[in-house]
Every structure is written in C-alpha cells, then in structure tokens.
Design a protein that fits this description.
The protein is mainly α. The protein has one domain (about 1-35). Helix content is about 70%, strand content about 0%. α1 packs across α3 (about 25-35) and α2 (about 15-25) crosses α3. The two termini are about 15 Å apart. InterPro entries: Homeodomain-like_sf, Transposase_8. GO terms for molecular function: DNA binding; transposase activity. It holds the Pfam family HTH_Tnp_1. This is Transposase.
Length: about 40
C-alpha cells in the first residue's frame, strides 16, 4: 500500500494531500513515506 501511494505521489501534477485524502491517510504520513523511500 505504501509503495503504491508513494508512486502515485511521484506523478507530475499530483497533489500529495489529494492522494492522501483519497486513500484515507494523513498527508504528513505520506510525506514521511516519501522521505523514507528516497
């Protein structure tokens, strides 16, 4: 699930907050996952 959300956030023009909201997770958590994936 994490990898799918991070990959979705890396698409051009995609809002991280929007992706987080669509998956029912906190945007700050998604930002943390993105930092960890680097």
């Amino acid at each position: 699930m994490k990898a799918r959300i991070v990959a979705e956030c890396r698409q051009p023009g995609i809002s991280i907050a929007g992706v987080a909201l669509s998956h029912g997770v906190n945007a700050n958590l998604v930002h943390k996952w993105i930092r960890q994936a680097r």
